[in-house]
Amino acid sequence: MDALFLRASELGGVAPDQLKLIFSLFVAYPLAALFTSIPASRPALRHIYNLAVSAFFLIGLLHLWSGVLQCLASSAFTYLVAYYVRAPYMPWIIFVAAMGNLTLNHTLRALSGAGYDVVDITGTQMVLTMKLTTFAWNVFDGRHQSPDLDTSQAAAKITTFPDPLAFLGYVFFFPGILVGPTFEYIYYEQLVHGTLFTPNPIADKTAQSSRLPQGRKRAAYTKFAQGAFFLGVFALWGGGMDYDRILTPEFSQKSFLGRYFFTYRLGLAQRTKYYGVWLLAEGASILTGLGFNGYAKTGETLWNRTANVDIMNIEIAPNFKILLDSWNMNTNIWLRNCVYKRVTPKGKKPGFSSSMITFLTSAFWHGIHIGYYLSFFLGGFIQYSNRLMRQYCRPLFLTPDGKSTQYKPIYDALGILASSAILGYVVAPFQLLDLKRSILAWHRLYWYGHILVALPIIFFLNGGKRVMRKVLASRGIVLPDRRKRKPGAETPLTSGAVTPGAPGAPNGVALNVPPVEMVVKEASAALQESKKDI
Known about the structure:
The protein has helices spanning about 1-10, 15-35, 45-60, 65-85, 90-110, 120-145, 150-155, 165-170, 185-195, 205-210, 215-240, 250, 255-290, 310-315, 320-325, 330-340, 350-365, 370-390, 410-425, 430, 435-445, 450-475, 515-534. By secondary structure, it is mainly α. It has two domains: about 15-195, no CATH class; about 320-480 and about 490-534, no CATH class.
């Protein structure tokens, strides 16, 4: 079979590993259809089927023997520690072990100089790291029955410890083994036993008697068509549109507007490959039935449990917060549920330490290259700047009772332009990876992204808040004083990504980057205290 992929690689100019990845995503669809033919009364057979298909992908196609052994070892370690260790630090043991193993392989990959065209075990380990740490916290929540659990934690807690075969079936669920999506164990268990699907309260009895809710195939193959389309766009257009072109002499000869629009095109081209693989993986998950997420008020079946991207809210996002909400959505949920909320002491508001731990976790999860840290750190300050603008400027375009004025579309249009302008800029280091090339790319873009982000922050932190409060007060709009929050009240994740209606996210909250305004405030307070001691 390798010879076939090598021949196709020579003809199409696509790396063999990339062709194998795409083939795996495509063939997952008929394999997902076969999964649904296995009776729910035979859950063990469904678990074995998942393991067999994942083994075919990882070993039969990609030859990742040593990587699979590592994944099995990590899974066994997680299972045993979660079963035998009852102490409160149990999830952290698993977290450190999973992240440590992932970071080690990220380091080995970086030292080998492997490019994006090489598929190794790190991609699968990134998925498994989220699954294993999520499983650990779900077990912890099921044992301790804390009244502090929120809606998503209470729904996902594990009260009956699974047998090893069920656990491995969850870990190696084949539609998401290569690129995700991730999800909680409880939903996999419900899928395998046929209890995930609830009756439609609006449909007639005939529709309710169906083993699988209506609309599954239509939703799945719509995602398939969308994913195939974006991969086709990338194959025809995106292959030569990488961020290295910013470093060429030809780029330096362009005007500022020419550089801006060219960078936007580079970012769009690179996003199409992520759209493609995520949509294909989501569609296969839907086809197994896992994407089921209840019903809309109209009675329409919802298949968005495994959604990982909302393209429209990325390409024409009215603000950067919504843009981040719509990107890599399941990773957002993982960061919020397994890191941000867990490092905050009970009864305390999230502060400097919890924010920075979340930031470092997200960066380490992606890899060790400095480019990831540059992009994530700037992304956090983009969120802070966006929050200030939304809090103090958006009310100018609303009536005192919160309704839109005739000028609100102008605010929305400016938000779309600003989000589009900053998107291609902030991901440049994420694509270029190393420090020297990342700094050169931003220099050739005249640091316009940093300037756009810094100007509102400088203004609002130097009297601008007071000015805007007076302006808004003159219009009968009084902003709430965030400093007068009740002790112990939950602090909104104002800089975190918020995914409206995201599965597993209460009130649609899902953290992606740390709330940088908290970091700034905490650091500022610490600096003032240190000055007093001098």
